[in-house]
Design brief:
The complex is a heterodimer of chains A (114) and B (115).
Chain A lengths: L2 E5 L2 E4 L5 E8 L5 E7 L5 E9 L2 E4 L6 E6 L2 E6 L8 E8 L9 E2 L3 E5 L1
Chain B lengths: L2 E3 L4 E5 L4 E3 L2 E3 L4 E8 L5 E7 L5 E3 L5 E5 L4 E6 L8 E9 L8 E2 L3 E6 L1
């Protein structure tokens, strides 16, 4: 079966510091991968998605970037964090082999920028 | 453009009563529709989806949803609510012609089931 991992689970960082959040998927090959941010426990904002290694699409121009160095690894980064980067970051995957393409979510990383 | 509306920020229901969480959508073509649930400080859990076929879809934990094309709705229902159903519920849509595979999520509805 497929599983998705995110770490760290919680992170407190000062403004201006760098960021690296990691997401890995097990039990599947060539997944579509997604990064979302959820602010204030409400709506989800799609930040980035990737349909293959090195292929990143950005949805919202911002202080963040994403990379996919390996097939099942998706990294969210920032060179200098802003207060507004605080939130709950969710990684998700879907299978391009499944016509239904349900997205399955990881446990999330809660980021607090102080 | 694709969009999803969840008109209720919160739904309150007594345990044992039926519940409905509303969702309407807008897509250019035919939709794939999804419901997810989120418990505090957790990721989203997939509940059910409509792809094609029978308009009534059954999912996890006794939930079901009815696809209504004429009303562009996909309301989530459960015949008898449990206190443990209290959570945040998200409706999502994708246009089946969209090759980017992106889901568009509603703003979420908080369900509170009181004992």
């Amino acid at each position: 079966s497929q599983t998705i991992h995110q770490w760290p689970a919680t992170l407190v960082q000062p403004v201006g510091s760098p960021l690296s959040l990691e997401c890995t998927v097990e039990g599947t090959s060539n997944p579509n991968l997604y990064w979302y941010r959820q602010a204030a426990g409400r709506g989800l904002q799609l930040l980035f998605y990737s349909v293959g290694i090195g292929q990143i699409s950005s949805e919202v121009p911002q202080n963040l970037s994403a990379s996919r160095p390996q097939d099942r690894q998706f990294i969210l980064s920032s060179k200098k964090l802003l207060l507004s980067d605080s939130g709950f970051y969710l990684c998700a995957w879907s299978s391009i082999d499944s016509p239904q393409e349900t997205q399955y979510f990881g446990p999330g990383t809660r980021l607090l920028v102080l | 453009a694709q969009s999803v509306a969840q008109p209720e920020d919160q739904v309150n229901v007594a345990e044992g009563n039926p519940l409905t969480v509303k969702c309407t959508y807008s897509v250019s073509g035919n939709p794939y529709l999804f419901w997810y649930v989120q418990y505090p400080n957790r990721g989203l859990q997939f509940l059910l989806k409509y792809i094609t076929g029978d308009n009534l879809v059954k999912g996890s934990y006794g939930f079901e949803a009815e696809f209504n094309k004429s009303q562009t709705s996909f309301h989530l229902k459960k015949p008898s609510a449990l206190v443990s159903d209290s959570a945040l519920y998200f409706c999502a849509v994708r246009d089946i012609r969209d090759s980017s595979y992106k889901l568009i999520f509603g703003s979420g509805t908080r369900l509170l089931v009181r004992p």
